[in-house]
Design a protein that fits this description.
With 169 residues, this protein is α+β, with helices and mostly antiparallel strands. It is built from 3 helices and 4 strands.
Length: 169
């Protein structure tokens, strides 16, 4: 009997994912199933008139599928569920989601109670799975601790422009 290949760990060992900072998160659907956009491609628009996506999302008007709308509602809820965690920027792609999640400190510079990023993602994915009635996610997620303002700005631009680069075919 052959041993199964060991999965490469994707979390940084001994890192506290509830510490203050910003994190770039990518969550993918199982088998990269394209389930979050409707079949119709949107048109470019300015962020100010992007009524479907609000000011946190990209300047491409995209019609979300029913599942995409569930995901969008859950992302909006993240800003209200945790005092110390907020979504700075996100985009919903056909088969994945990009976030910038920030963990804040209080006025004295102390980290407020904050769940780990892993816990936030587990609860986020679990809530959506329960609403959908079937598992739709790949195991785990990708994360990157944002190092500085330049890193933050580059990731913001990547999220902003990602839908513009997506080819439906």
């Amino acid at each position: 009997m052959h041993a199964l290949p060991k999965r490469k760990p994707i979390r940084v060992e001994n890192y506290d994912y509830s510490t203050q900072g910003a994190y770039f998160i990518t969550v993918c659907t199982a088998n990269r199933e394209k389930i979050f956009w409707s079949d119709r491609r949107g048109e470019l628009c300015s962020p100010a008139d992007n009524t479907n996506t609000g000011d946190q999302r990209s300047p491409l008007r995209v019609e979300l599928s029913n599942l995409g709308n569930i995901v969008d509602a859950e992302i909006q809820k993240l800003n209200t569920l945790y005092d110390a965690v907020r979504v700075d920027k996100y985009c919903i792609m056909p088969d994945h989601i990009h976030f910038i999640l920030s963990v804040d400190t209080d006025e004295n510079g102390r980290t407020q109670f904050a769940p780990t990023i892993s816990r936030v993602m587990k609860q986020f994915k679990g809530s959506i799975t329960k609403q959908v009635g079937r598992p739709i996610w790949q195991k785990s997620f990708y994360d990157h601790g944002i190092q500085n303002q330049q890193d933050y700005d580059e990731i913001w631009a990547y999220i902003e422009n990602n839908p513009l680069k997506y080819n439906m075919h």
